[in-house]
Amino acid sequence: MWKILVGFAVFAALALFLLSKGGDIDMSGEKHGIDDHAPAASAPAASAAALPASAAASS
Q1: With contact defined as beta carbons under 8 Å apart, do 18 and 10 qualify?
Q2: Superkingdom of this entry's organism (predicted)?
Q3: What is the pLDDT along the chain (59 residues), one digit of tens a residue?
Q4: What does the alpha-carbon distance between residue 30 and residue 39 come to, in Å, rounded to a whole number?
Q5: Distance, CA of 43 to CA of 48 (rounded, Å)
Q6: Interacting residues of 27 by C-beta distance below 8 A, sequence separation 6+
Q7: How far apart are CA 23 and CA 34, in angstroms?
Q8: Based on the number of CB atoms within 10 Å of its own CB, is 4 exposed (0-12), middle (13-18) or buried (19 or more)?
Q9: Three-state secondary structure along 28-43?
Q10: Residue 51: which H helix or E strand, with range?
């Protein structure tokens, strides 16, 4: 019986060690909805950045 308890304790310690070294692990369960990501570049800024390059190529 004591071997089972020691084996469980060793396995639990190993599992916690591996989870702590694993990086960004989310144990909070299912997520519903959109995650918060960086906002996309706005269309006017992207076209304004491309404007000087196209104007230089046409001249």
Answers
A1: no
A2: Bacteria
A3: 999 999 999 999 999 898 888 877 777 878 777 766 666 666 555 555 555 555 555 55
A4: 23
A5: 9
A6: 19
A7: 22
A8: exposed
A9: CCCCCCCCCCCCCCCH
A10: helix 43-58
